[in-house]
């Protein structure tokens, strides 16, 4: 399956709070020997293609138990990770297994799974936030989609790579005091990274778990400012948001902010692992002031300060 056959996500109208997911499954052998299918989904826009299993044997010196080795693909050499190992599922290996080749966060990675089913268009409002039980197992599950007979678990592959890869670049930037940023991200790992980065830069963060929660929070701040006869910037100076989140994505959050006559002056920084030249127009269309990739999250404090100073000027 090639990228041209599956990359239909860029055709979705921006701001409709929708995305398209590639559904796949991992077979799990239970203790009684019974086999069950666990269904997962990832954003179609992150998928380059699907290939047959290369039948790799994990090297003894593997940096992580899920690392299976590398394979050549066109002019690339990409690592392959056994997703079942990461998710702690006892997956029996067969000749029918496949590798989903993904491209995001400036890297190309293969993920071994049992098989692919189909592509679904879903609204972020349909995505059920993960239960506390799932969150304790892994924070890579960002939500569930009810398909009637089964649930599709939406995977945040960035969280997996963030925990596998070495610590990224750091920033020594420190802003002037008195700046507050509202942050929206469904990943606990990324939230902690951004919160620390902002605090280290002397920027006070207000942390929310998704776009819906962020919008409700900023509307409450707006009401408070209006009731006290103050400007909204007395409570928040800008918004920093992930794009892919359950209940409401970053595009819809930005659209709501920029269509509000009081909030529209607040700068909005969107970030994602899939901000490419082809997809950047989506953020532009809803009024995002800046879009950056997740490997560049360390630049957020300085970029936020620039946007605020630009607005004040």
From TrEMBL:
Domain of life per record: Bacteria
Keyword line: Phosphoprotein
GO terms (BP aspect): chemotaxis; phosphorelay signal transduction system
Domain Response regulatory: 180-309
Residues covered by the CheW-like domain: 18-166
Statement: the UniProt record of this protein carries the keyword Disulfide bond: no
Source species: Pseudodesulfovibrio profundus
Keyword Transcription among UniProt keywords: no
Record's protein name: Response regulator receiver modulated CheW protein
Residues with the 4-aspartylphosphate modification: 242
Pfam family membership, one: Response_reg
Annotated InterPro entries: Chemotax_regulator_CheV (IPR024181), CheW-like_dom_sf (IPR036061), CheW-lke_dom (IPR002545), CheY-like_superfamily (IPR011006), Sig_transdc_resp-reg_receiver (IPR001789)
């Amino acid at each position: 399956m090639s990228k041209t056959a599956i990359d239909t996500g860029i055709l979705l109208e921006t701001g409709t709070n929708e995305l398209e997911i590639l559904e796949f499954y991992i077979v799990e052998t239970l203790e009684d020997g019974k086999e069950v299918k666990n269904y997962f989904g990832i954003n179609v826009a992150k998928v380059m293609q699907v290939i047959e299993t290369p039948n790799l044997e994990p090297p003894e010196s593997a940096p992580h138990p899920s690392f299976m080795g590398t394979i050549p693909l066109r002019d690339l050499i990409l690592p392959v990770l056994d997703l079942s190992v990461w998710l702690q599922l006892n997956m029996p290996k067969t000749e029918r297994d496949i590798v989903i080749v993904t491209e995001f966060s400036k890297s190309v990675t293969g993920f071994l799974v049992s098989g692919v089913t189909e592509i679904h268009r879903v609204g972020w409002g349909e995505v059920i936030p993960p239960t506390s039980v799932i969150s304790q197992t892994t924070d890579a599950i960002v939500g569930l989609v009810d398909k009637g007979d089964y649930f599709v678990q939406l995977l945040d592959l960035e969280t997996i790579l963030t925990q596998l890869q070495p610590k990224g670049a750091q920033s020594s930037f420190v802003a002037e005091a008195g700046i507050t940023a509202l942050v929206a991200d469904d990943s606990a790992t990324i939230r902690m990274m951004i919160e620390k980065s902002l605090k280290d830069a002397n920027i006070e963060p207000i942390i929310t778990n998704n776009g819906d929660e962020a919008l409700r929070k900023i509307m409450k701040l707006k009401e408070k400012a209006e009731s006290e006869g103050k400007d909204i910037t007395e409570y928040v100076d800008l918004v920093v948001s992930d794009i892919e989140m359950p209940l409401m994505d970053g595009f819809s959050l930005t659209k709501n902010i920029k269509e509000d006559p009081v909030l529209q002056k607040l700068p909005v920084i969107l970030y994602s692992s899939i901000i490419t030249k082809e997809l950047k127009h989506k953020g532009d269309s809803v009024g995002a002031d800046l879009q950056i990739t997740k490997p560049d999250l360390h630049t957020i404090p300085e970029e936020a300060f620039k946007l605020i100073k630009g607005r004040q000027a």
